[in-house]
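Much of what follows relies on a compact textual record of a protein's fold. The record below shows the convention in full:
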Amino acid sequence: MPTTEIVTVQQRRRKYHWPEAQLNFWLLIIWVAAGLNLGVFANFVTIQQQMNLGIPWLFPYMVTVSALAIIFLIIFMILIMQRQLLPGIVIVFSFILFVLWLAGLIETAIEFLGPSGGVNGNCNLYVLGQSFSGVSIDTLAYLEQKSICQSWQAAFSFEIVGCVFFIWMIVMASQVNRDQYE
């Protein structure tokens, strides 16, 4: 007579301990970096369209990468609320975003700090060395040009910050995976 064997499988769920202060600080900075780059490069696209100029590939690229980062952060927050944030997922997506962000940073650096005709050089030469005041069209044009120059500076700075923080998240997630934050 055949015997029936009952096997019970117990599944144990592993808990990961994320350092709350570091995680919250990381989230804040990446939200700021992604939001700033999304806004700045979307504004650049609008300016180029308004002036009937071609749109360099960098502008829609950084809008897309910043939007992907924001989508990642939303998923990240949902997983945190459900207490299901897995280090492997974080490492993979942080690496993907780091590579995309780094490509944008390299092109931004070329455009911003280029040897001849770079945005920073032109800003220093034509805009930041000038001073206009009073109610006039010249003052308005100067303020708009200064705003564009400062937007380039902010975008470049936060792209550097984003790259550093994505590397930091890869390191932090690997440490969480090895239970170094108990």
In short: Helices lie at 20-50, 58-81, 87-113, 119-127, 137-177.
